[in-house]
Amino acid sequence: MPKTPCFQSGIAFLLFWTLSALAQSPEPIVANQNRSPAGKLESGVLNIQLEVREGVWHPENEDGPALFVQAFGEAGQPAQIPGPMLRMLEGTTVHVTVANKLDTAVTVHGLNTRPGDSKDVLDIPAGETRERTFPAGAPGTYYYWARSTEPRKSGLGSTPQTVFEDAQLNGAFIIDPPGAVPPDRVFVVNLMFVEHDISHPRFEVVSINGKSYPFTEPLDYTVGDSIRWRVINPGFAPHPMHLHGAFYKVLSLGDTQTDMRFDGDDRQSVVTEGIQPGGTMMMEWSPEHAGRWLFHCHFQLHMSSAERVPVFTQPSEHKDPLEGTSGSMVHDGNKMEGMSDMAGLVLIINVRPSAGAAAPVSAKAATRTLDLIIDPDAQAAANEPKFSCAIREKNKLIASQDRGVGPPIVITRGQLTEITVLNHLKSPTTIHWHGLELESYYDGVVGGGLGDQVTSAIAPGDKFVARFTPSRAGTFIYHTHAGDPSQLTGGIYGALVVLEPGETFDPDYDKLLVIGTRDQLFNAKRITINGSEAPQPLTLARGNTYRLRLINIAPNLIGKFRLGTQEHPETWRELAKDGAYVPARLAKPGDAMLDILSGETYDFQFRADEPGDIPMEIQNLVSQAKLVTHVVVR
């Protein structure tokens, strides 16, 4: 996860190929868009011949940086990243052979009946072949994977996962129920480290279906389409997957061996869902607004331009397709619109207007107008910039006491709202209205918009008017979407609360807990709540019921929040996730403990009946750093 330079001597497990290595013509590994299933189906039996090979992989352009990795392939076909998709109907019998073409042994997981035992593996010595036959099992979204190296201890999941040269040894395993199956797309999210050697630091490579943005596949839809995706995370780290401009319903969650399906009212609507290490998800959504949208991991390191694969040795002249552009790029020879300040785990979604769609009708209700003023903190250290966000409405100016967070913006569902963002910084910025369903042009992402109306960064000294009508009440976020991570750690963010008509925001009842970090990496040690590393205790009255609005907008925080002690946590009841009320299966009293990833918001109902102090803690599960404060109940 963190890109920590390390210049120790040694031989890299994975290297960029030099000219001499390229001259040996290693086998090319192709990106697999998971559009076609592998194998051959005969009389209810799916026959598939897999091979584990080594080859050269281009996670970006085909004439860009190359990596030497291991991958699955079908016999007689190119190796693929991710591996060939195994897809079949429930009731199918699977006959699979796996040939190990490596010079080291491999252990293959996931070639078994679902649900199954994670210990059911195929151990294949170098140069040998193994086979097995089994019934497919229960419908769901699964995957298979293999390991050729010793498992690292850095994973956050319970299953040892691949990290280095075998990190791409995985593929989708999909079992469909009988009958008509709605069309879907399958996306496999991979993360690997390239180990350091005597001249190169360790670095990270992330990909979706074998490519890293800006070379991921662009997706094209029309307003009103019913869209189903299966997202698979075979790696060792979670990914908070965030959709811009629309909510999506979580249809199922699972892992390599199990899948839990949700039906009807049991389906949770979200804009950000954390897919856990080794986890899978099936989701469904329908775009309501035309334009250019994003689906991406909300960890800043996994979507920043720093995710571009570094070039140490380049055999031919290679021009960056984003160089000198403000949002357009080339993909497979075709010009398309892109978000030029991003890279990594990002998918671009182009949504066309529906046929005969009428132009939006101007709202007749009174418009709420606000200013969001972004200023530099002149007293901040040069190596740790901070910023001041203030809200101005008519003659009233509201600013936070701590410059590490912006004041909450409170607006009303159904009311047309215009927020003018004034950039007083010396660098460009942009503000994203996280979780709101709005027009693409106002979403706050460079390169967004529709047709010739393209969103630009807000230049120093300039302003931008964001215009939207909130369609639902809830807890959301406004935050910078600029490529400079110091803007986020410096405080250009805050809570965005949408109330029902007639409601008022009562700070004595609504308690905002906005989590951030002063550090930019996953191992951040300086955690903040409401902009402070030493927040004042939260004071509550015993017997009163409160709404706790939790927001994690730290750049790269795998956080764990807790009220009470580990042995004796307090009790709360979940109300909402990402601004949408949770289904009844989740809206039950439970322990006040929460895993919360960057980009997620939660609402809880909480009441303390006894006076005293209650510990409150947020922990970074990577660095183990903690921010510890307490709640005073009187």
Q: How would you summarize what this structure contains?
A:
The chain has 634 residues and is mainly beta. Residues 2-23, 152-161 and 314-338 have low confidence and may be disordered.
Report on this structure.
This protein is mostly beta strands and about 625 residues long. It folds into three domains: about 20-290, Immunoglobulin-like (Sandwich); about 365-505, Sandwich (Immunoglobulin-like), CATH 2.60.40; about 505-634, Sandwich (Immunoglobulin-like). Helices cover about 0% and strands about 45% of the residues. It has two helices and 49 strands. The strands form ten sheets. Strands 1, 2, 3, 4, 5, 7 and 10 form a seven-stranded mixed beta sheet that branches. Strands 13, 14, 16, 18, 19, 20 and 22 form a seven-stranded mixed beta sheet that branches. Strands 38, 39, 41, 43, 44, 45 and 47 form a seven-stranded mixed beta sheet that branches. A hairpin with a 2-residue loop joins strand 43 and strand 44. The longest helix has 5 residues, at about 485-490. About 45% of the residues are buried.
